[in-house]
């Protein structure tokens, strides 16, 4: 498969620090080279902004650049994979680049806060709310190609660290939530197939989001927000494959990897396994 790795090394508006270091480190650890040796055509497209940046002022610029690169990759018959420090950059930019889509969201956290409910002020804890245009709506109002994510096209997988208002959002909007114990009890197919079939009634493609802190820290300690009780890499890969059986995967994001929390250097191997699962889902 021909792949475009879109490298977005920003965390909270800062270039190349904390989780912003992850997209740089994954390539430095040989991710692109390993994928090429496995037979894939790989291009790495770096994203960089100029000027003085804050977390919020950087967001629309990154969204726009990611959308442009995602769209270009799709037009060239390539699968875009966004390697991003922050989740909001990957999901909003990807949706603007591919158009209406289902979203399978693997993350340890809800990312459903708004400026009115957040306890930390962390912009990335509002990523899905931004994608649904329920937070910071002006940031996406002028983003070419962007259509807000509909709650019935979202499946939230593996989260276990919510702020209370986020659980209220899941209940009130009827968002499909698959807990780790659901996957273990029912299997990936049993837990997801019905929800994916429902989404396929509305759209025929998906963006699949892989915040690496969805993993149990024994598999990979992805960042300072990692919490116990998460998925295995094998389970994540099976979620990817199951999604591809129901929907065309049009774009993907691998996010929130902080190399400082991974002294054993597992990150590139984890990313490689997940991208191989994506490549196995078929043509873009």
Short description, anyone?
By secondary structure, the protein is α/β, with parallel strands linked by helices. The protein has helices spanning 22-28, 31-37, 55-75, 87-98, 127-131, 137-141, 164-173, 180-199, 233-246, 267-279; strands at 2-8, 10-11, 14-15, 41-46, 79-84, 102-106, 154-157, 176-178, 205-211, 248-255.
Secondary structure elements and pairings:
Blueprint: E1 2-8, E2 10-11, E3 14-15, H1 22-28, H2 31-37, E4 41-46, H3 55-75, E5 79-84, H4 87-98, E6 102-106, H5 127-131, H6 137-141, E7 154-157, H7 164-173, E8 176-178, H8 180-199, E9 205-211, H9 233-246, E10 248-255, H10 267-279
Parallel strand pairs: 1-4, 1-5, 5-10, 6-7, 6-9, 7-8, 9-10
Antiparallel strand pairs: 2-3
User: Which topology does CATH recognise?
Assistant: Arginase, Chain A
Beta-strand content: 15-25%
- State the oligomer: single chain
Low-confidence stretches: none
In sequence order, what are the helices and strands, one letter per element? EEEHHEHEHEHHEHEHEHEH
Structural Rg: 17 Å
| Total number of strands | 10
CATH architecture: 3-Layer(aba) Sandwich
Characterize the main sheet.
Answer: 8 strands, parallel
The CATH C-level name is: Alpha Beta
Quick one: overall form?
globular
**Helix content range:** 40-55%
Estimate the mean pLDDT confidence: 96
Compute the number of structural domains: 1
CATH superfamily: Ureohydrolase domain
Helix count? 10
Estimated structural class: alpha/beta
Query: Largest beta sheet: what is the strand line-up?
Result: 4-1-5-10-9-6-7-8
Distance between the termini: 9 Å
């Amino acid at each position: 498969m021909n792949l475009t790795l879109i490298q977005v090394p920003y965390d909270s508006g800062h270039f190349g620090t904390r989780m912003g270091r992850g997209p740089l480190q994954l390539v430095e650890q040989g991710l692109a080279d390993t994928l090429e040796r496995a037979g894939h055509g790989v291009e790495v497209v770096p994203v960089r902004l100029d000027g003085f940046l804050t977390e919020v002022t950087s967001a629309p610029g990154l969204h726009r650049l990611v959308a442009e690169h995602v769209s270009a990759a799709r037009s060239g018959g390539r699968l875009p994979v966004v390697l991003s420090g922050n989740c909001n950059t990957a999901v909003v930019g990807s949706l603007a680049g591919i158009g209406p889509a289902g979203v399978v969201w693997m993350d340890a956290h809800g990312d459903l806060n708004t400026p009115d409910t957040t306890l930390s002020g962390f912009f990335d804890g509002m990523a899905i709310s931004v994608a649904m245009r329920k937070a910071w709506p002006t940031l996406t109002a002028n983003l070419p190609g962007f259509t807000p994510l509909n709650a019935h096209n979202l499946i939230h997988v593996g989260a276990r660290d919510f702020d209370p208002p986020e659980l209220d959002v899941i209940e009130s909007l009827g968002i499909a939530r698959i807990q780790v114990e659901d996957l273990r009890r029912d299997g990936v197919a049993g837990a997801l197939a019905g929800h994916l079939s429902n989404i396929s009634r509305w759209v025929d493609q998906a963006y699949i989001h892989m915040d690496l802190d969805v993993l149990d820290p024994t598999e990979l300690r992805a960042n300072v927000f990692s919490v116990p009780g998460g998925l295995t890499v094998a389970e994540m890969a099976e979620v990817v494959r199951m999604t591809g059986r129901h929907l065309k995967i049009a774009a993907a994001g691998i996010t929130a990897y902080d190399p400082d929390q991974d002294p054993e250097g597992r990150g590139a191997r984890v990313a490689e396994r997940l991208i191989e699962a994506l490549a196995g889902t078929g043509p873009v």
